[in-house]
Structures are given as C-alpha cells and as structure tokens.
Design a protein that fits this description.
Elements: H1 9-22, H2 35-42, H3 46-58, E1 62-65, E2 69-72, H4 76-103, H5 107-118
Antiparallel strand pairs: 1-2
Length: 120
C-alpha cells in the first residue's frame, strides 16, 4: 500500500480498513484480518496495525473478542460515516474554502460548478 507523508501511517491504515467496511469488504459482525495478516498484506510492521486497530476500536468501529480476533462492530458503518463527516468538516473543508477564497470564486460560481460536476 502506498502511503503519503501527510498523515501517520496507522491513520492511513485505519482509513483503509474503514473504507473496506463501507464498501462491504467486511460486514458488521464479521471477523477482519488479524494484526499479523493485515500487516503482511500491507507490508508494514504489526505494531503499526495494532495502533490502527486501537484507533478504530476506540471509535467503536471494531472490537476484539479475546482469542478469536477483531470483528466489525454493530453500527460501524454509521460510526465511520460520522467520523468521515467530522474529518471532512474539520480538515478538508477549511483547505477547500481557503482555496476557493484565494481563487476569488463566488458562492454562486461554486454552486454552478458543483451542479455541472454532478451532471457529468
């Protein structure tokens, strides 16, 4: 998996797993790969995957059944949607608004661009 340098690798791994849950690769109540399996798949240190799994577990997206592994939590899709919306609002939107302002794009121009984009 190619990683970027803007966010910690464990967060990028957590994002990937969350995306896989949203796409239906893993379903609520279903077992996900073990830490070692996922680390081998991504070519990263297992400790990095442990951090990613801990990050997702704190956010009620996955849970650990001792001796059985990690599973997707009930309500994980909704939790991921809330988390994604918060990330967009707090991290991505400010950069977008700053860029729009720097380019001198009016609100009406932006709405027109969005309408045209969604119709293509």
């Amino acid at each position: 998996m190619p990683f970027n340098e803007t966010r910690p690798i464990y967060q990028q791994i957590a994002d990937r797993l969350a995306d896989e849950v949203m796409r239906g690769v893993y379903h609520e109540g279903e077992r996900i790969p073990s830490v070692r399996e996922y680390a081998a798949l991504l070519g990263v240190n297992p400790n990095t995957v442990v951090r990613a799994y801990d990050y997702l577990q704190i956010r009620d997206i996955i849970f650990n059944k001792r001796g059985l592994g990690y599973f997707v939590a009930d309500g994980a899709v909704d939790a991921i949607a809330r988390m994604s919306l918060a990330t967009f609002r707090d991290e991505e939107l400010p950069r977008i608004v700053e860029r729009i302002s720097a380019l001198g794009i009016s609100p009406q121009q932006l709405l027109d661009m969005i309408k045209n984009y969604s119709h293509s």
